[in-house]
Structures are given as structure tokens and as C-alpha cells.
Specification:
Elements: H1 2-12, H2 21-33, H3 41-73, H4 75-87, H5 93-107, H6 111-118, H7 131-178, H8 189-198, H9 200-216, H10 221-231, H11 241-251, E1 255-257, E2 261-263, H12 272-304
Antiparallel strand pairs: 1-2
Length: 305
């Protein structure tokens, strides 16, 4: 199932938006979050917790029973449908495509177009950002998504199967959509805290994988590890700083979100080619994680049979 899911992602990439489960998660979240619950923090928090749990159930329960039925009906159908559902919880090809698209625009010095393209990767205001900060934002997103969009979904797939990966993706999607400061901050607080908890292990595991990738690719693995340890707490998120700092150290660059944080030391300049280097690191880390998942799967299969 995992092999087929990876093959689907690498060959076809993302499914059409009209049938993409994550798009559906976003639409459900938008619909439920638009209901008026007042400005009181407690009311917002309770409602936010409720819609988070309802949305998790709305997507995981059908997946669980569909796969349970297919497993008893046809092993081939069970594997294929499970692989399609599992693939929807992670994305490698699309992340690479967008990152390389930003790089191409930067090489052409089309900064306005690069800022626009970057919107699909980051939520920050990209207007007026110079090239180094556009490169930084792209590299940061590539690093963070190594954990959020690959390591974490497969981590919960190993623990709880396809429904576990789907449940994680629901929480992560809701955090991205409603987990922000502002008038309705408490509406998304439950999803945000749940996402922080779910990513606690995967984020640190991602950093370790990136340090290993730095070693295998003859980058500065020592600096990658030291930067991850020393700089990870500078981000507002308790998890995002781990993989981003690991990449900053490995590439000997300083990643910066203006007026928020700086990760690593400015050794090498941030240029479009830095995006390529970050993608190579994350690809090696992703391959390593996939191999670990395969080994765990084989061991589990042997043990249970």
C-alpha cells in the first residue's frame, strides 16, 4: 500500500481538486468555521474543538469502514483504495514543482511572479520581499513540509493505518486554515494545540533525518545538528523550527522570516540554487524515512504471521 501510494505521488502527483480529500477537508472547515458563535473565547474554543472532532470523524470513519469492507472482499481492491487514500495525505511531487517554479522565476528576475507563486507555499505577506527572503521562505517551506507533509502522515500511518494518516491530515489542514491570531483566535486554538501535539515527534524525527541527509550528501551534518538544537525554539511554532533549523545548518545559510525569527548563521548567500540544495536534502531525508517505514512494515508482517 505504501509503495503504491509513493508511486502514485511520484508519477501523477495530486489528484484533481474536485475529488481531492484535502480540498474537501478545507471546504468542510470553511463551512463550519463560518458559523457565528460570538466573540467570547470560551464559546469559540468549545465550538472550535467540536468542529475539529466532527471533521476528523467525517473523514476517518468512512475511510475505516470502506477499507474494512474491501479487506474482506478483495485484497487487491483494499490495497489500491488504501494507497489512493494514503497518497492524499502527503505530497512530494507538488512541493518540488512549486519550489522549482519559484526558483525559475527568480532566475528570470521576475520577482513579482515569484512572490505570487510563493503564496501556495507560505501564508506570510510576500509583497516587497527581496530575492534572499523569497529564497528563504521557499527553503523554509520545503524543510517544514518534510515533516508536515511526509514524515508525519506516514508516522501515523505506521501507528494507526490509513485512518490515522487521514486524521492527522484533517488536523493539520484545520490548523493551517483557522489556527491563527486575530478576532477568532480561540476558534482554532484546539486544532492548533492538537496539531502541535501530533507533530511533536515527527518534527524532531524530520530534523534527525535531515541531519542524516546532510551527512550522506556531504553537507555540514555537525552544523545541521547544532543549529537544530540551538535555533529551533526561535519560531512561534514549537515544531516548525526543528527541520528548518536543520536545513539552515546543513546549507550554512541563515533563514529569516522578517520581524519574526532568524535560523542559523549567514555563511553562504541565499540564491535560487539554494532551493535546489534544500530539495536534495529533503529528498534524501524522505527516501530514508520511506525505507524506515518499509522495514517497520516488513518486521510487523513477519512478526504477526
Amino acid at each position: 500500500m505504501l509503495s503504491l501510494a509513493l508511486a502514485i505521488d511520484l508519477v501523477w502527483g495530486e489528484p484533481p481538486r474536485i475529488i481531492h480529500p484535502v480540498v474537501g477537508m478545507g471546504k468542510v472547515t470553511s463551512f463550519l468555521a463560518a458559523r457565528k458563535v460570538g466573540n467570547r473565547p470560551l464559546a469559540q474554543f468549545i465550538y472550535g474543538a467540536g468542529i475539529t472532532l466532527v471533521t476528523i470523524g467525517l473523514f476517518t470513519v468512512p475511510a475505516y469502514f470502506i477499507l474494512l469492507y474491501l479487506k474482506s472482499l478483495s485484497l487487491a481492491a483494499y490495497v489500491v483504495v488504501g494507497a489512493v487514500l494514503l497518497k492524499s495525505t502527503f505530497s512530494l511531487k507538488e512541493l518540488r514543482r512549486v519550489a522549482l517554479g519559484v526558483k525559475r522565476l527568480l532566475l528570470k528576475e521576475e520577482l513579482d511572479e515569484a512572490r505570487l507563486e510563493l503564496h501556495s507555499l507560505v501564508s506570510r505577506d510576500t509583497q516587497g520581499l527581496p530575492q534572499p527572503l523569497l529564497v528563504s521562505a521557499t527553503v523554509e517551506s520545503v524543510a517544514e513540509n518534510t515533516g508536515d507533509s511526509f514524515v508525519a502522515p506516514l508516522f501515523y500511518f505506521l501507528l494507526f493505518g490509513v485512518p490515522g494518516a487521514i486524521a492527522y491530515r484533517v488536523v493539520n489542514t484545520m490548523d493551517a486554515m483557522i489556527g491563527y491570531h486575530g478576532k477568532y483566535e480561540y476558534l482554532g486554538k484546539f486544532a492548533t494545540k492538537l496539531d502541535d501535539g501530533l507533530n511533536f515527534i515527527p518534527a524532531r524525527l524530520s530534523a534527525l533525518l535531515l541531519v542524516l541527509a546532510a551527512f550522506l550528501s556531504r553537507r555540514d551534518a555537525r552544523n545541521s545538528w547544532q543549529t537544530a538544537l540551538g535555533s529551533h525554539s526561535r519560531t512561534e511554532s514549537p515544531n516548525a523550527g526543528w527541520p528548518m533549523a536543520a536545513v539552515a545548518g546543513a546549507l550554512n545559510v541563515q533563514l529569516e522570516k522578517k520581524e519574526h525569527y532568524k535560523l542559523g548563521k549567514a555563511g553562504a548567500p541565499l540564491v535560487p540554487e539554494t532551493i535546489d540544495a534544500s530539495l536534495r536534502l529533503t529528498q534524501i531525508a524522505g527516501l530514508g524515512w520511506a525505507l524506515i517505514c518499509f522495514i517497520v512494515g516488513v518486521v510487523y508482517f513477519v512478526y504477526t504471521t
